[in-house]
Amino acid sequence: MDTTTTRLQSIDLQATDGSSVNIAYDRLNHIGFSYHVNIQSRVETQGIMRIFLIPAGIRLPAHTDVTQVAVEMDRFLIFLNPGSNYFTRRSTSSPFVTKS
């Protein structure tokens, strides 16, 4: 099974202009990871690959849209050739994952 490691991180920010602004907050952080996806195509084409994180093993009430529990993790342009197309993408390339 693949895993993503996360941790709660406390952050303290102070203004550098001499003012008395101080911000403290907690954020969810992670260890970098990579996506590995293999797509079979019958034709040459292009598209947008979107990757979502969805909790496993939960039962949604009837008529619940899965997008209510899904988190979009990445989105990027892909070019497909006929046959097997293998993609690797690092989490640091995602516009949705905060870099630390």
Question: Could you characterize what this model shows?
Answer:
With 100 residues, the chain is mostly beta strands. 0% of the residues lie in helices and 53% in strands. The chain has strands at 6-14, 22-30, 34-41, 45-53, 71-80, 83-90. The strands form 3 sheets. It has a two-stranded antiparallel ribbon with strand order 1-2. Strands 3-6 form a two-stranded antiparallel sheet. It starts with 5 loop residues before the first strand and ends in a 10-residue tail after the last strand. The mean pLDDT is 83.
For this entry, give a set of tags.
single chain; mainly beta; two-stranded antiparallel sheet; 6 strands; 100 residues
